[in-house]
Design a protein that fits this description.
By secondary structure, this protein is mostly helical. The protein contains ten helices and no strands.
Length: about 280
């Protein structure tokens, strides 16, 4: 990369400073003693969700990590921020894995999610697809996780993870915005990246937005308060998915990529009147 527009974000240094100030540790900042025995259905649902999130966060750290060595020293601010993101995602993997085992549960079949992101080979494509799209969906999922948590340990786990995710979103938004404003000839290229990601999201097991059928059921069980109340839980999950799309559409519009006319129909339906 030789041009500023290839990897610059006006907020990179500010976000780096914030990240270094707001690091937390799963061993000392999560009140694990608050985790009490749960019914089998709820414990299995938590473990399924956290297994899935462990996989997702592994990818979310691996993808930006591949670009660290490619950032020239002239734009070290972006490299510093990506370093903090890799650390954030490693901490998320750690905390979700701890929750899987702390209450006598274990890893479960949680399907796959976002593996297509591992094929990205361009920095701006990475920020558009990973930050602007995927991590925004994950942030909404974390917020729902806090809402439906069974104890204070889980609430803090999701709250702190969402706090980190906000920085990743901010970096992606400010980078893509810089590209659109300073290299407008790349606008259609950016739309194309999002076209592909939206299509893959709707045509694969990720069709339920950042989750798959297995984790969607887990969310419904947790949101409803038990397997016998899954129907009520699915209503909350649908609300989350609508929120995911509303926030994604807003982020895209802020950076200058109005998706109202070309968003995948299955995703646009979730916007309802907002579209």
């Amino acid at each position: 990369y030789h041009y500023k527009g290839d990897l610059w974000s006006d907020s990179a240094m500010l976000l780096y400073e914030e990240a270094t100030q707001r690091q937390w540790a799963s061993a000392t900042d999560i009140p694990w003693v608050k985790v009490e025995p749960l019914s089998d259905d709820l414990e299995m649902a938590v473990c399924t969700l956290c297994t899935f999130l462990t996989q997702v966060e592994f990818i979310a750290g691996d993808v930006p990590g591949r670009f660290l060595e490619q950032v020239p020293t002239d734009f070290f601010e972006s490299q510093l921020f990506l370093g903090t993101q890799v650390m954030d995602e490693a901490r998320h993997q750690d905390v979700f894995r701890k929750r899987i085992f702390v209450n006598g549960g274990g890893m479960s079949d949680a399907g796959f999610g976002a593996v297509n992101l591992l094929s990205i080979d361009d920095f701006t494509e990475m920020t558009a697809v990973l930050h602007l799209f995927a991590e925004g969906l994950v942030q909404s999922l974390f917020r729902m996780g806090e809402l439906i948590s069974q104890n204070d340990a889980e609430k803090r786990m999701f709250r702190l993870s969402a706090q980190d995710e906000s920085r990743h979103l901010a970096f992606g938004v400010t980078h893509v915005k810089y590209v659109v404003e300073n290299e407008p000839w790349r606008t259609e290229e950016l739309h194309h990246y999002l076209d592909i990601q939206e299509r893959q999201t709707t045509q694969s097991q990720q069709a339920s937005l950042t989750t798959n059928p297995l984790t969607g059921e887990a969310l419904a069980i947790l949101a409803g308060g038990g397997i016998e109340k899954m129907d009520d839980g699915f209503k909350m999950v649908l609300q989350m998915r609508r929120k995911q799309m509303i926030e994604y559409a807003h982020r895209a519009k802020v950076v200058g990529l109005d998706r109202s006319e070309r968003m995948a129909p299955e995703l646009r339906e979730l916007l309802g009147d907002v579209a």
